[in-house]
Design brief:
five-stranded mixed β-sheet; single chain; elongated
């Protein structure tokens, strides 16, 4: 086997030997032809000897050519294996959110089931609230955080908890934002390290004070970027599902929508009491005026009676 580490110089030397062997073979064949033409009585033994020598040189040249080809192929294979690998594509970062509205028989039991589904998927309940509507119905509102790989399965299970009223989902690609934030964090960390190195070499108090202010500002910017990075990591690793569980209206409540005799009686009594209330208010508002008018009428009658008594009788 040829030595692959010999390099281009060894390959060139082997090619030179192949060319030289081919030239010698051609010269030997030419001399053999000339000898046969000039001396027809030449021995067959000489011819066979010459032919054997030429065949040996040709076989040797062919062997060297094959070795050279194998060496070149091995060198190309080694060069191909040593070629740098292509970089892997960057991971995709997606924020997934969904909103579900489901009608269930019991909001409390459905909420407990939703909590179990979320916890079994490796998620958590971020928010939960329950309230009573119309005195006999309850609704529950839950905000669930589930891992991205369990997002579709959790949505299917929650949608099948009852009668699905509405469902919306959204996926937002924030890969560029994640990459930009990571790059800015790396740059900001290098900046903070440079300022700290300058502080270590600073001798003057004024320089130290100025560098401390600059370090504080850059450190605050770095912490802000780290907070953004943590928020992006949380929202891209955990999907958010908002679930509203609503109990249906009871048949009695549905039938109460049509008015009947009791509804009419109740409405009439309400109108009657309202009228009495307004009349009482009107009387109360006019009472002071009526009292003044009554007092004036009494005084006028009293004065008129006295005048009649004081007047002489007619014809006296």
């Amino acid at each position: 086997m040829p030595d692959l580490r010999s390099g281009p110089a060894a390959s060139a030397a082997r090619r030179s030997r192949i060319v030289l062997a081919a030239g010698l073979l051609a010269a030997a064949l030419a001399l053999g032809g000339c000898g046969a033409a000039s001396d027809d009585s030449g021995g067959d033994g000489d011819k066979r000897g010459l032919t054997a020598e030429a065949r040996g040189k040709a076989d040797s040249a062919a062997g060297e050519a094959a070795d050279t080809a194998r060496a070149d192929g091995s060198a190309k294979g080694a060069a191909g294996s040593a070629a740098p690998k292509q970089p892997k594509p960057a991971a995709t970062h997606v924020i997934r959110t969904a909103t579900l509205s489901v009608e269930v028989r019991s909001a409390s039991r459905a909420a407990a089931s939703a909590r179990t589904v979320t916890q079994n998927a490796g998620g958590l309940v971020a928010e939960e609230s329950t309230e009573r509507v119309d005195g006999d119905r309850s609704t529950s509102h839950l905000v669930l955080r589930v891992p991205q790989d369990a997002y579709d399965r959790v949505l299917r299970e929650l949608s099948g908890a009852g009668k699905l009223l509405s469902r919306t989902s959204e996926a937002k690609d924030v890969t560029d934002q994640v990459v930009d934030t990571d790059s800015r964090i790396a740059t900001q960390r290098s900046s903070v390290a440079r300022v700290r190195a300058l502080m270590d070499r600073a001798d003057k108090l004024t320089d130290v004070v100025a560098l401390e202010g600059e370090l504080s500002s850059r450190q605050a910017a770095l912490e802000s970027l780290l907070a953004q990075q943590a928020s992006l990591k949380d929202r891209t690793s955990m999907a958010t599902v908002t679930l509203d569980l609503i109990e249906p209206e009871s048949p009695a409540a549905a039938s109460d929508d049509d008015p009947g005799f009791l509804d009419a009686l109740t409405g009439g009594w309400h109108a009657f009491t309202t009228m009495l209330r307004w009349l009482a208010m009107a009387v109360g508002a006019s009472a002071p005026f009526l009292a003044v008018a009554a007092a004036a009428l009494v005084l006028w009658r009293f004065a008129a009676r006295r005048r009649r008594k004081a007047a002489p009788p007619a014809g006296g």
